[in-house]
Design a protein that fits this description.
By secondary structure, the chain is of the alpha/beta class. It has ten helices and 13 strands. The protein has four domains: about 5-105, Nucleic acid-binding proteins (OB fold (Dihydrolipoamide Acetyltransferase, E2P), Beta Barrel), CATH 2.40.50.140; about 115-265, Succinyl-CoA synthetase domains (Rossmann fold, 3-Layer(aba) Sandwich), CATH 3.40.50; about 300-350; about 355-413, no CATH class. The strands form three sheets. It has a five-stranded mixed barrel with strand order 1-2-3-5-4. A five-stranded parallel beta sheet has the order 7-6-8-9-10, with helices on both faces. Strand 6 (about 140-145), helix 3 and strand 7 form a beta-alpha-beta unit. The protein is elongated.
Length: about 425
Amino acid sequence: MDIVHTEKNILSVSEITRIIKGLLQDSFPDIWVRGEISNFRTASSGHIYFTLKDEVAVIKAVLFKGYQKAVPFELSDGMNVIVHGNVDVFDKRGEYQIIVDLMEPEGIGALQLAFDQLKTKLQKEGLFDDSHKKKIPDFPDSIGIITSPTGAALRDILNIVNRRYSGMRIVIYPVLVQGDGAAEEIAQAIRKANMRREVDVLIVGRGGGSIEDLWPFNEEIVARAIYDSGIPVVSAVGHEIDFTISDFVADLRAPTPSAAAELVVRNKAELIKGGRELIIRLYSSIDRMLLQKKEKAAFYSSDLLIRRMTQLLQQKGQTLDELERTLSGLIGSYLIRIKGRFEKAVGQLNALSPLRTLARGFAFISRLPDGRPVFSTADVQEGDQIKSRLRDGVLFSRIREISKIRKEQDGTV
């Protein structure tokens, strides 16, 4: 089969792509699409590319950097979202895609999701820890207020401060508190106050409003400025039921701007009253102390002191007498015990003494001149001289004859 064509019906790739692109742009200029994010990535240019898919189909999508402020929450694979934009064709690849300009999570508000994501992130980093929170000064000399110069919050704070402590030095840092650029102005004002070091405490806040109105106080830039502040920060945003990221990071959260003023500034009348009561208690304490000192001085006056010393000496004398009697008794008992042991030893020595034997008629014989004892006739010879010790004296003799005693068989003499 021959194909017949003319130069007029032959299109280039660019031409057909341009035609398809025009048809898609005209047909889908304003659409909402629901799907699950996959293949999520951020290019070096800052543009975000991803794919939207459902059970049977996929479509590519791109969120250009200029539109990302309209998406306050963080994107990730697996997130179910609803996107708004238009359908276009990427010429170089011939692929159609959705150019996204708005996006919200399916099933939960975008701002609420962004709030939860940032809260979790900063909590994990430790920005909410009590260990980082600074003490609010009890008696500040000056107060800094970061808020709108035309808002009701500023008027409420000034009225309460002037009522509670007139003459308090106040520095106002005017900022936007909602809309584009508000978060940057609030963060810059916190940094400026720290650079100037002209106040002792900062009140950062605004009156009530919707979550969109309060959103600058949920921005990460404001949270980190509060955390980095060397000056204690009181967060006072909205009404009592409103909570913002700034409340969690600040050193103190006040339920309202008016409550912040009451927390920071003491009531002058109450301070004066408390000071007077303190002076009264101080004087009473001094009077009691002086009375105690006088009583103690009187107790140690000269006459009384002499009597006390005399009584003390008498008591010590009695104690000494008691010790002397006790010691005498102990020494007497000890001497009696020693005397008994001595007499017993003397008796034992006397019982063993050879003098007792001599008294019964025996004699102790020794040979002269060496003095060796004579126990047997074998110890001497005829002609030897001997010495006999008797009970009442000594005999010197010479042996003329030695006669030995014959023993009988039965052992008798």
